[in-house]
Structure formats: structure tokens, C-alpha cells
Amino acid sequence: MKSAPAKSPKIVRVIPTLTLETLLIQSSGGPVCGVDEAGRGPWAGPVSAAAVILNPDDLPAGIDDSKALTEKRRAALEPEIKARALAWGVGFASVDEIAELNILHATGLAMCRAIEALTVQPVAALVDGNYRFKLPCDVQTVVGGDGLSLSIAAASILAKTARDRLMVEMDARYPGYGFASHKGYNAPIHQQALQTLGPCPEHRRGWAPIKALLEA
């Protein structure tokens, strides 16, 4: 008699909590923000970042890593986060700044601007990833932080929705590239538009495919 095939273990995804924030508040003695970015990889448009200090007594339901949410859900959560957070801020670094500084340092600049836009200045920040950016407060990096920390997850939502909105506006200024759909990322429609129209001022000149077109 053949035995039944073994069942694959069920994968349970971790839901973000305020555990990391609570520990850091206890050690730092002050407000803690979550920080995340959006748009490091696209061929066009700025990189954005957001910083959020959540109110533990008034949390919007459903905050999660922005990549795990639909565009509709992110759009619904954005005003909820802004209305209920103790403070939030969004910052950008332009295509020119990306060209001058490189994408890593431009991301750090956007993060600094997001923190500086907070109406409550944090003592420390939880930052998604493993790179320790130089920010206007102490930094604790968290790999996979947008799936672990509610504050980072909230920041990921604000960074993503702010940048997406800007890319839709950019689509109206530079029609034909499809910015409203692919948000500047590498996509077949984007590649085709570049071959037909060439780069526009919002394309990142340091990216190899854009550089090759400019030098052709």
C-alpha cells in the first residue's frame, strides 16, 4: 500500500507589527519613524522616500508592505495613514540629482528630505534594507523591514503612492512613453517608446540602456 504523498508545509507570511518600534523607543527614549523608498530601479523619474511616525493608539487596519498590496488598497490606505499618524513626510531626489550623486546617495537624500518634512522630529529611524544611510537621526537597518515593521510598511505605502502619482503627471507632460502604466520601469512598452521617441528629460542618463540611446 502506497503512503500518501507528504504535504508541503504551509507558508505563513509574517504580518508587520510595532515590536521593533517599541524596542527602539525604549532604547532611544524618543519618537521613532519608519523609512522606506520607492523607485530605485526604474529607467525614468525621481526616487521617492517616506518617513512615518505611527500613533500606536490609532493604527489604520491593513497596513502591509506596499508590494503585497494592490494599487487600489494602497490608494485607500494613503489618506488613512496621513490622517492617523503622529507625523509623516515624503521626499524626492530628481533625475539630475540621481545623475550627480548616483542612485544610492540620491535615495539617502530623498530619505533625509522625508525625515526633515516630519512635524515631529524622531530620535531614531527604522530603515528598510541593510545600508546605513546618513540621516538626521540615529539609524537602525532592518532587512525585509517593510514586512516586519508597521512604520516601515506605512512609509513604503506613502513612498510608492507619491511616486506613482508623480509618474502619472509625468505621463501627461511626456506622452507616448506609458509612464502612467509602468511608472518608469523597464517594460516592453517602455522599451518600444524609447526606440521610437528617444529619451526624454526625465530618463536617467546613467542607466546603460538610456546612455546607449543618447550616445547613438
UniProtKB/TrEMBL annotation:
Catalytic activity: Endonucleolytic cleavage to 5'-phosphomonoester
Binding site for a divalent metal cation: 36-37, 128
EC number assigned by the record: 3.1.26.4
Transmembrane segments: none
Cofactor, how bound (note): Manganese or magnesium. Binds 1 divalent metal ion per monomer in the absence of substrate. May bind a second metal ion after substrate binding.
One Gene Ontology CC term in the entry: ribonuclease H2 complex
Manganese found in the keyword field: yes
Location within or outside the cell: Cytoplasm
Domain (RNase H type-2) ranges: 30-216
Keyword Transferase in record: no
PANTHER family from the UniProt entry: RIBONUCLEASE H2 SUBUNIT A, RIBONUCLEASE HII
Record-stated family: Belongs to the RNase HII family.
Protein purpose: Endonuclease that specifically degrades the RNA of RNA-DNA hybrids.
Name the record gives this protein: Ribonuclease HII
Organism: Brevundimonas lenta
Gene name as annotated: rnhB
